[in-house]
Write a structure and sequence with these properties.
alpha+beta
Length: 331
Amino acid sequence: MTQANLLEKAKRGDAKAIASVMNYLLQDKGITAQATLKGGCLQVVLESAQVPEQESSVAFIRQAMMKLGVESVKYVKVQGKKTGQHFPTWTESLNLNYQVEEPKEPGSALEPAKQGNQKASGALWPAWFPYPSSWVRAFILVPIAFPGARFIFLAFGGLLVSAITASPVILIVFAGLGLLVSTIILSFVYQIFWFSWKKPVSSTRKLKWVTGSSSLWEGFYATAVTGLSFMAVLTLLGVLAFLSCYLSHSAETAVEVARCSGREIGRAAGGIFGSTDNVWNFSGRGVVIREEDDFAVRPWFVIWLIIAAYLYQFEYLIRSKFMPALKRAIR
């Protein structure tokens, strides 16, 4: 079937043709669409390896339907779910108000939506530099994860020790009490203050405070970003401390250099985690009130923020570009 015939069938209200047009437009995002028509309501189900982002997906469906101008469809029920799930993660209804447009050549209706789809995926922003969303996610992590940064870092340290000593007991203790607890807590925070806020009242989920797959992933990755970022910062500070002590104690023994490095690293770690522990302290000692103690202007926080943003950028590129390409290759 040619593209012109497919568009004509879609404009006449053929649900399969509408789904084919949407799948063509969504192929770069790794999202598949299924459409059924009942009366004047078109039900569209979007599936992907990760639950499709609700706001951009609904905007895309609205734009595509407005371009097609299917007069027999007055309402669209859009649902998003992860591949393999039986029930949708989110649901939103659209009331279409068509506007009269000048006739266009067959195929031209696909191009604006296709171009908008590419712009939305960050085509105008270099992939090697974190997108604004990555910086925002890194900043959001500060007030919700920093109070438990010491706990998360110790959990990562325990995993490292268990890997070196090959001790399953240490692995279970630190993975269970450290990473698992942190993931669950952060998942609830994201669910209550972020995902519940984004979901409309029409969502099919009755208990919005119960964490879903998206919240669990955000909680897990926030834990990973926090731990890995602090490990990178302390590693860098450790290298700088060793170089400083080596230069200042070059005439002394290796033991003295090691002791000096240990003292400097311990002092730096204590200052860092002391600042994170007081992130919510507004009494005058906290990092928000006293400018001289403000961790936001310290070099280590800038380094931490850059590392966190790049980790979020890496996750976004894997989820939005690598996984869809891998899925198409498997097909």
